[in-house]
Amino acid sequence: EAQVTQNPRYLITVTGKKLTVTCSQNMNHEYMSWYRQDPGLGLRQIYYSMNVEVTDKGDVPEGYKVSRKEKRNFPLILESPSPNQTSLYFCASSSLGQGTSGTEAFFGQGTRLTVV
Amino acid sequence: GDSVTQMEGPVTLSEEAFLTINCTYTATGYPSLFWYVQYPGEGLQLLLKATKADDKGSNKGFEATYRKETTSFHLEKGSVQVSDSAVYFCALSPRGYQKVTFGTGTKLQVIP
């Protein structure tokens, strides 16, 4: 079954304690990205990756890091979490578009993070 | 930059009512347009898409038509069901790029 798997689904942590949220996809997609979802703001892109070892900032990258050492995995790292990073996080993957057609993004189930 | 504006919710409808969720966009060129749906406790999943002007995307009884002249992509369904209760996101992706820009989402609640 084609899927994007995030772990953990729920996480409560304290300010400053480093954490990693894992993301893995089994569709051999080149493109992966992280979003955060906040009420009234929709989904905002944090970081994205076009392929292995190729990552770039999205719209709200401050306070986050990512890595892409393997095609299937794209972990999100919060080195020193703060309460304003309390949010619902989604990982997504898609294949690179063929010319002019938009391609579907596949989303993980989400990780609800609370930083106290 | 690119942006998507959709009507604020929540929208509450009785079962079998007609649904319209408005969506307008700002983008250069000819982006691809999408509607994603998020059921409670789940991630987003693609509902329908359209990749060029006048294209109509459809799925599960939902429809949306790519209107370049009005930069709109309104979502419609003729008869909603309780199982359609979810949050609906309008989104766009510039041609040749993967980044998706989302609207703020519209929560739909359908009551029996």
What does this structure look like?
- The complex is a heterodimer of chains A (116) and B (112).
- The model of chain A has no long low-confidence stretch (mean pLDDT 92).
- Chain A is built from no helices and eleven strands.
- In chain A, a hairpin with a 2-residue loop joins strand 5 (42-51) and strand 6.
- Chain A is mainly beta.
- Chain A has strands spanning 4-7, 10-13, 19-25, 31-38, 42-51, 54-57, 65-66, 76-78, 87-94, 106-107, 111-115.
- Helices cover 0% and strands 50% of the residues of chain B.
- Chain B is built from no helices and twelve strands.
- In chain B, the strands form three sheets. In chain B, strands 2, 5, 6, 10, 11 and 12 form a six-stranded mixed β-sheet that branches.
- Chain B is globular, with a radius of gyration of 13 Å.
- The mean pLDDT of chain B is 93.
- The A-B interface holds A 4, 31, 33, 35, 40-45, 48, 50, 58, 90, 92, 94, 96-97, 99-105, 107-110 and B 4, 30-34, 41-46, 49, 51, 89, 93, 95-100, 102-105.
Please give the alpha-carbon distance between the first and last residues of chain A. Answer: 36 Å
The largest inter-chain interface, given as chain pair and residues per side, is: A-B, 29 and 26 residues
Oligomeric form of this entry? heterodimer
Report the order of strands and helices of chain A: EEEEEEEEEEE
- Count of individual helical segments of chain A: 0
Keywords, please?
heterodimer; A: mainly beta; seven-stranded mixed beta sheet; four-stranded antiparallel beta sheet; globular; B: 112 residues; mainly beta; six-stranded mixed beta sheet
